Amino acid sequence: MTEEFVPDVVISRLPRYLQTLNQMAREGLHTVSSKMLAERLGITAAQIRKDLSCFGGFGKQGTGYSIYYLIEQLQKILNLDRIWRVAVVGAGDLGRALTHYQGFASRGIEIVLLFDIDPKIVGTKVGPIVVRHSESMEEDIREQGIKIAILTVPAEAAQSTADRLVKAGVEAILNYAPVTLILPDEVQVQHIDPVLHLQQMMYYLDDND
Amino acid sequence: MTEEFVPDVVISRLPRYLQTLNQMAREGLHTVSSKMLAERLGITAAQIRKDLSCFGGFGKQGTGYSIYYLIEQLQKILNLDRIWRVAVVGAGDLGRALTHYQGFASRGIEIVLLFDIDPKIVGTKVGPIVVRHSESMEEDIREQGIKIAILTVPAEAAQSTADRLVKAGVEAILNYAPVTLILPDEVQVQHIDPVLHLQQMMYYLDDND
Description:
Two copies of one chain form a homodimer. The first copy, chain A, is of the alpha/beta class. In chain A, the strands form three sheets. In chain A, strands 7-4-3-8-9-10 form a six-stranded parallel beta sheet, sandwiched between helices. A two-stranded antiparallel sheet of chain A has the order 1-2. In chain A, strands 5-6 form a two-stranded antiparallel ribbon. The first copy, chain A, starts with 7 loop residues before the first helix and ends in a 7-residue tail after the last helix. Chain A has eight helices and ten strands. The interface between A and B is large, with 61 and 61 residues.
């Protein structure tokens, strides 16, 4: 498979292709056309063909793609053919909900560390995981070679916590705090903020209520 | 302000502009150049100027934008100059965490309804909100004129629940279930799936661990 420079925006769509293909596989489908996939995803078939062509061809002209082959290839491209161990920082409602989340294990993600600074929370268990004090965060993360962290600390603590994570070797941060983190270019950052998604939809809502 | 057809991708960036401008205002700044804003957001200044020009001009050449004026205008464009009442469907860990979430009220979002089907959960309180049984969902949503719902039900219940919400008048759904919903074009849907964000970052991580 040829894999040269691929634009970030293409990479950003691959996990959704994979999710939809897995859903189709569960529905018992074996092959899929770019048109079918496009309808499910709400984007154009041309876009899907163009995105996939970044990685060489996956299908024969006119016969569609083999769903299982495409799933396997996308998993390889996205480095999902392994288990990724992840640290969660912030054991409030959201941090606990994420640590409990069933959808991680089935998709190759294992939460192995959970940190907080609240003495009432440190030492308690969330599922099988004991909440550790954030003061040992750098040491624990280095020791376990964790590269990915999920940040669910309050907004005002987000930047300093992220800085500490990066110093400890974390290369990718999923940030739930409602602030834009300023980090070295080589660190991957994604933000999840439900408010931003809601605001984006509000633009389209009727004004008559 | 001229406001004709604006591409979805432009709208999708406005909430992040607003978030960053609010952060700058809290830091005590009064004016901002597109270059400063671009650096914070990790996109180009040209992109920001082009996006904002969709709504007419906001700043004088060379003097930058007034942060407060820009915040006010973006809030108007996104219909944020009001309180939006929202229903949460699914009162598991995530639904409860969202209902507790402090970041909604400060940004004009009020969770007013919370539904579940689990008899152990129905009738309990999450903050000031009593969990209602989903069987009254359509009626409650119609009665209160709710247009926006957050879906935190299990994957297998997501599509049927979304269909019921749309029939009850919901026009925008923020979906946390890891499935792609198939809904009428006029319904706004946004997905939040931490796994997709994590997978997207894994592409960029070193293979040596």
